Structures are given as structure tokens and as C-alpha cells.
């Protein structure tokens, strides 16, 4: 029986001809009936793909034959077989859209001057040694952190990755510049860049969680320093690392714990709000506050206490 899986990987490595890599990756994806997203840039590749385990293995094997991709760290997780609507393979200026393409240099070893990599075990050692001084710095969008994060983490007020540079330059985190700062994100790709941007801005001791939350969750589940659910950029929308995980999100209707975002009922609106299972039916009848203001009466108006929507501009962006 075909077992559906999802692979997540990236490589920062100089690509002389991103367009050629794009065409190659697209034909590979088509050959193995994969769906999902691949971004290619002059700085490397970033991919999240779904398919059968056999087909994905063939795809990964071939992809690793490209010299710059030989060492990719592929994270596997269970899929449903319908996790992505289609296959999308694109060339972009950046692997992740920080809007900082000119600030980042990439060589054969990856991003130049990025944070020190910490495996999950090494992260625990750092916390054991340095205790409360260690700062967890969430490298994701705020709505992702709303359902799960590292205990006590700093969650920057960013709606999209593009907001990070302004957020760092605002001075809001300058008091952390002398402390050990551990950046983390879903699979690690965003922290390669973020940790580099932080070092360039005078943060003195910056680490990045190697393999991201995905690898940490595989190692320690939610018995360690992680709390709640992990937001993922596919149809699953969230994953948990244990059977008894309590998501950190709160239903915008009743306040019950939930990890499930629902789209605004207005077609074309990307705003997400958290609803619990009991209130999920309401999600299909309620506009977000922005839509209710723009097109009043198009759908039943949300109640005052339901207006805690989170903007979610790059829901479809690769983690
Ligand atoms: Zn509820
Ligand atoms: Zn809306």
C-alpha cells in the first residue's frame, strides 16, 4: 500500500543557474507524482513535498546527486496523500523572504556568518549551563507561535518574515544583545538567515536550533522545553509531538485550547482565526473584522469578542 509522506529540506549553497535547477526539480517532481513547493534561488533550495514514501525516496536520492545538495538534512513526516493542492517550483530572489537579499552571503558551507548550530541535545546542555540567561527567539510569524513555542520564548511581532528586519532595527530587542540567544523556526531555514541578520546587528552570542522544531520534536517530543503544537504550511496546518499535547492557542469564540486556524469566510481573505472543534461551525459563517467593515452584511457580522483575528499574509509561503 502506498504510504503518504512529507519531506522538508533546504540547502544554502551557491547556484550559478537557478533556472536550470528549477526545470530539473519540476521534471523530477512530475516524474514522481509529488505535490508541494520548491523555491530555488542563487542561494540554494528550499522544499516541502508530499508523495508516496517510495516516490519521495527516489526523488531525494536523485536530488542528492547534485553536488551542492549532497549533504541535505531531509526531515520526514507522515502525510495524508492530499497535503498540497499541486506542485509549484519557482525561482525567487531569496529562499525565505526577509527582503534582505543583499545582506546575505552564501558559500559552499552555507550562510556566511550565521549563528552557531545547536542540535537538540546541545540546546539542553546550553540551557543546563546558562539557565535563565538563555533567550529563545522565535523566528516565525507571530500566528505560528500562538499555538506552540519554546517555553518563555520571545515572539517578535511579525505578520510575515519580511517584517523581521524592521523589527530588529526598531531596537525592541537591544537588551538581548549581550545574552545567549537561540533562534528557532520550523525546519531551520529561516534561522540560517535570521541568526546572520542578528549577528550583523550586534547580537553577540547567537545560536540556531539545528533541524528546527521538527528535529527537536522528534528528539524530545513535548517532554522537554517545547510547549504546544507546531504550525505547518500544508493542509494538516498543525502537528503535535505527543498524544497529550495541549495547544497554546485559544478559541476566539469560547477560549478553549485549540491549534486549529480557520480561514475567514470571505472568499479571497487570508485572515486566520483560531476556533475549537465545538465552535468550528461558526467559523464558516463569520467574517473577520476587516471584511465585516469593508463588506458589511455580506456574511453575518462577527461578534465583538470574535475579533481577535491574526493577519496571515504568507500562509502559502514555505516554512
Ligand atoms: Zn470554542
Ligand atoms: Zn476576512
UniProtKB/TrEMBL annotation:
HAMAP family per record: TrhO
Rhodanese domain ranges (all copies): 130-225
GO biological process: tRNA modification
A Pfam family that the UniProt record links to this protein: Rhodanese
Function, in words: Catalyzes oxygen-dependent 5-hydroxyuridine (ho5U) modification at position 34 in tRNAs.
E.C. number(s) listed in UniProt: 1.14.-.-
UniProt KW keywords: Oxidoreductase, Transferase, tRNA processing
Domain of life where this protein originates: Bacteria
GO terms of molecular function: oxidoreductase activity, acting on paired donors, with incorporation or reduction of molecular oxygen; transferase activity
Catalytic activity: uridine(34) in tRNA + AH2 + O2 = 5-hydroxyuridine(34) in tRNA + A + H2O
NCBIfam families linked to this entry: PRK00142.1-2
Family, as annotated: Belongs to the TrhO family.
Lineage: Bacteria, Bacillati, Actinomycetota, Actinomycetes, Micrococcales
Name recorded for this polypeptide: tRNA uridine(34) hydroxylase
